[in-house]
Amino acid sequence: xxSTEAADDDHVYLSLAEGHDDGDARWAFGTGFSDPxxxxxxxxxxxxxxxxxxxxxxxxxxxxLVASQRLAEWCTRAPELEEEVALxxxxxxxxxQARMLYARCGQVDGTDRREDAYAYFRAPADFRNVAxxxxxxxxxxxxxxxxxxxxxxxxxxxxxxxxxxxxxxxAIAAKAVPELTYxxxxxxxxxxxxxxxxxxxxxxMRAALRELAPYVEELLTATGDTVPGILAxxxxxxxxxREETLGVLRQVLAAAGLDLPERPAAPYRGRGGxxxxxxxxxxxxxxxxxxEHPEATW
Amino acid sequence: xxxxxxxPDEQRARRIAAEVPDPELPMLTLADLGVLREVRTTPxxxxxxxxxxxxxxxPAMAEMRADVAARLHAAGFAQVEIxxxxxxxxxxDRISPEGRRKLREHGIAPPGRAPRKAAGPVPLVLGATRQxxxxxxxxxxxxxxTSRFSATACRSLWRCHACLEPFEHVKEx
Lengths: 298, 173
Known about the structure:
By secondary structure, chain A is mainly α. Helices cover 61% and strands 0% of the residues of chain A. The longest helix of chain A is centred in the middle third of the chain and has 29 residues, at 167-195. Residues 1-33 and 231-235 of chain A have low confidence and may be disordered. The longest helix of chain B is centred in the middle third of the chain and has 14 residues, at 61-74. The relative contact order of chain B is 0.15.
């Protein structure tokens, strides 16, 4: 065939239809066009424990997916269009990270599942995200304070995982680092602006930090649960992630005229599947279309 | 009559893949953008094209893969394989000088040099650190960022105080 018309056709959907001749049906929902790790060498090095690697990918993937869903809830509700676009874009980055992490998990956990199986067909108790990401959005201050805490911790962890012994996880982490750097910067700027702003904005940011403080410890402790054996060297391990996270939070909060209140840790263990009552309704909405039409293709 | 010698398959495939436009910045080709890493042919005649995603969540990645495959099929290559390359990650430093020129021509300020990765924790800078992004229309550096994000993940929104026009800037990554 030498159809130059086809070659000249820029129409995305035509190209998609033509290009998709590898037998993979596309779902009517989601972006299951193809594996986000399509064509990446999937071999697991001998030195890497596959089940530990899968646990890391799942935990970090779940954090990202649930956080992304909460950020998406701001669409049409953000205080300004610019902030709506920002929150949606940050959510999109996290969704992309989740997709690659799920795909990697499916390659190494022995189930050969694809990304959609993790996102759409697991029960709340099978999710391994920390409680921090599933809490309702609250006001803009709460969402921003959460984003600062999450992106600070995630950046500290993933910048270290970029040197891990599984080359695929290392590459996913390295790719995420500049994205998370940008997210953290965005959140930090807003925390300072609100904390050092009006009396009302200061009050709201203070209240947000008070509400979130009990969930910080789970995140920091979860580093150890998240990365068993992956972060071996002490200077790159759990304690280093904790120190960096708390150090950056102190830096931002000091500039904002705020601090992280000392509060007892919340009792949830998201890495063990023990979640708040907020996760189930979030997943119900996220999974509703996929569950209603599990085989839908277009 | 002059006949042009036929290009070897690999070279022809590379040229075709390189000319595929980016779905979100259609003034750029995938080669300009630096997402096309490699095109080669295997002994059995399969064309293997390697692409690298810009952002983890870039929704255009599926389109890019499909577009490259479709163009190669249309040019007569029956066996086409598209691979994803994650390492080393894409950076805006991969955008070619030609790509930067085209961005500017279309009113989009090209990225400056991407931040160098140093050892140790990624530093966080608070306070007014004004990055000088020249206006792609009038060239003035009297510009101001109005939003860290824009219509796609790779761009931010700016305003020029000299010519008063808003413009987009491809963020350094």
